[in-house]
Specification:
Largest sheet: 5 strands, antiparallel
Oligomer: single chain
Order of helices and strands: HHHHEEHEEEEEHHHEHHEEHEEHEE
Low-confidence stretches: 446-453
Bound molecules: adenosine-5'-diphosphate
Shape: elongated
Strand order of the largest sheet: 2-1-7-6-3
Mean pLDDT: 86
Structural class: alpha+beta
């Protein structure tokens, strides 16, 4: 199994969005249900008892603040009724407890029926516990157990197995010591819990089914547009660049579809360009080869044709062929980034002058006028060989396209620590919509032109790649019927930098 097959198998075993969404929603619902179960049902009696003890505490706080009130007894009654708790308040005088107030608001009140021994035991527990003692007490028919000790009840109306929350407090006020006893019945919550449990089971079943259905609908909504895009993407991968990704559904899908449509267009254009490139290269390679073959055969078969002129044609065509091959090689290396500029300081003006010498023969024999203007020395930090190639290509193009004026103007201007090299011609110019494309390799504006120097169709792509690698600014200003100015600009370096 190769890596690709392994990746496909892995993807197939990965869960789809539908399964993931269903699992996520079901797990989420289950967690919510568990939380409700624990908090509402399992901890119901805990919260209920806590609430009861808090109620007792509130009642005690009121009693504490009213201990000095003249109508204390009435206040105790009122507090007890308000909070629904039973109360007994004692004052400790000479070690003896004297009841100074109380209220029995419920028939199930236990504190009014406790034996004295238990009362003093409770007092003791509170005293040992810093003055406060809370206790859940289970009363049997005639006795109650506390810390393993049995206390018999005076046999009054004691409901079987009553449970009470008992709150004991010892406090001081004005030098007097008081002992408060509060009690609230804890009704059994098991019946409520049973009802809640049944209710919970139904709710849980309903919620789980609802979560499942909801997850299915949601996953369908999410997955359907994605599946449609995947099918179209498969067509794109198979080479159908016309694939139109439907931008509908939710925002993320629309963005994905837009991105894929853009990618499809770009890949289509690149594919087209690549095919065109191969066709152009084959054509350009074939033309000189046909000439070389033809002339060689003529020279071999016809002794009279075996002359220097024909040999020169073969040499010229071979030169053109090797230029084309080396241009292609340069371009592919530049674009792949395998060759990087080797920076050195040199005078751009001098380099331009040296390059123009190569055109002397053209000027002498074909009547071209190549004018050169410069504002002086311009030292730049760049790859000399590469910049020479740029200058050479731009001048070649200007010579090729300048038209009947046969005039080309080369200029070097300096401005704000920058040097601009420009080549102007009086040719037909370039249509504005073509300006962008001329930098693409093998792009040629489709028209017959005068070619004093034969180009390979790769010149401007090489220029662009070199100038991009140098981070230089470049461009073309062209007007149809007037001519074009190709230029590039780079910073002037101080020689001592
Ligand atoms: P070519 O070998 O065809 O000149 P280039 O890459 O150098 O290849 O140029 C690409 C195309 O840009 C040319 O075919 C031509 O259409 C256009 N072009 C380049 N320079 C000029 C110019 N000075 N004037 C008008 N068109 C130009």
């Amino acid at each position: 199994m190769n890596n690709q097959e392994r990746a496909v198998t892995k993807r197939r075993t990965q869960a789809g969005i539908r399964i993931k969404l269903i699992c996520a929603l079901v797990i989420f619902t289950a967690l919510v249900l568990i939380a409700i179960w624990v908090l509402q049902i399992r901890l119901l009696s805990y919260f209920y008892e806590k609430e009861k003890f808090e109620e007792l505490e509130d009642a005690y706080e009121e009693i504490y603040t009213r201990i000095t009130d003249s109508d204390f007894k009435a206040q105790v009654q009122k507090t007890a009724e308000q909070h629904g708790v039973c109360v007994r308040v004692f004052q400790i005088i000479d070690g003896m407890a004297k009841e100074i107030g109380g209220a029995e608001v419920s028939a199930s009140c236990m504190i009014h029926h406790l034996p004295t021994r238990l009362l003093s035991n409770l007092y003791q527990s509170a005293a040992e516990n810093g003055g406060s003692y809370d206790k859940r007490m289970e009363f049997n028919q005639n006795f109650v157990e506390k810390d393993g000790e049995k206390f018999y009840l005076p046999g009054i109306h004691n409901p079987a197995n009553a449970v009470s929350a008992i709150c004991v407090r010892i406090f001081e006020n004005g030098g007097n010591v008081y002992f408060a006893l509060l009690d609230s019945e804890l009704t059994p919550v098991s019946a409520t819990i049973n009802t809640l449990q049944v209710q919970f089971m139904w709710t849980a079943c309903f919620l789980l089914v609802a979560a499942l259905v909801f997850a299915l609908i949601l996953s369908r909504l999410i997955a359907t547009p994605l599946s449609a895009i995947t099918q179209k993407a498969a067509k794109l991968a198979a080479g159908n660049y016309e694939a139109d990704f439907e931008a509908s559904g939710y925002r993320e899908v629309v963005e994905l579809a837009d991105a894929l449509n853009f990618a499809a267009r770009e890949i289509g254009a690149t594919d087209h360009l690549q095919k065109e490139l191969i066709a152009n290269i084959s054509h350009d390679l074939r033309t000189p080869l046909t000439m070389i073959k033809g002339y060689s055969e003529i020279m071999r078969d016809l002794p009279g044709e075996n002359n220097a002129e024909n040999a020169q044609i073969i040499i010229d065509e071979t030169t053109r062929l090797s230029e084309l091959v080396s241009d292609l090689l340069d371009l592919s290396k530049l674009q792949a980034g395998t060759i990087k500029p080797e920076y050195e300081l040199f005078d751009l003006t001098q380099l331009a002058k040296d390059t123009l010498v190569r055109y002397d023969a053209l000027v002498r024999h074909n009547g071209y006028r190549i004018l050169f203007e410069s504002e002086g020395e311009a030292t730049v930090l760049a790859d000399r060989g590469m910049i020479l190639q740029v200058i050479y290509n731009l001048i070649n193009n200007a010579v090729n396209y300048t038209g009947s004026s046969l005039r080309v103007r080369v200029a070097i201007t300096l401005k704000d620590d920058r040097v601009r090299f420009s080549v102007a011609d009086d040719g037909e110019g370039i249509e504005p919509e073509m300006i962008e494309s001329i930098w693409d390799r093998y792009y040629r504006v489709d028209k017959v032109h005068n070619r004093a120097v034969i180009g390979t169709g790769l010149g401007l792509s090489i220029v662009k790649s070199i100038l991009d690698a140098h981070g230089a600014l470049y461009g073309v200003d062209s007007a149809v019927g007037v001519g074009s100015v190709f230029w590039f600009e780079m910073p002037v370096s101080k020689a001592d930098n």
